[in-house]
Amino acid sequence: xxxxxxxxxxxxxxxxxxxxxxxxxxxxxxxxxxxxxxxxxxxxxxxxxxxxxxxxxxxxxxxxxxxxxxxxxxxxxxxxxxxxxxxxxxxxxxxxxxxxxxxxxxxxxxxxxxxxx
Length: 117
Known about the structure:
By secondary structure, this protein is α+β, with helices and mostly antiparallel strands. The protein has helices spanning about 5-25, 45-60, 90-105, and strands at about 30-35, 35-40, 65, 70, 80, 110-115. The strands form three sheets. It has a two-stranded antiparallel ribbon with strand order 1-2. Strands 3-4 form a two-stranded antiparallel ribbon.
């Protein structure tokens, strides 16, 4: 985003958040952790359904963004950690989801990985 400036980066983050909100149910929650990382809590969703939601988020976030006549493309990677399979506490679930996300990034753009699989 450095080539487009900080204002464009801030606008892009706002649009990413807006797209995430539109892709999630009212019972779910998304929060920006910092930089370009977000956490999503899916209430009452586990296993293959959580992976489907993560894959849908990748698709929604990867669609082109238009800012001031410029087309911007980004990629997303997701890591999924399910309760209680991947952990029972907040810190353990976040750690496992983070590890899965980095495995997804290593596998290439637009990937989802699940903790413990």
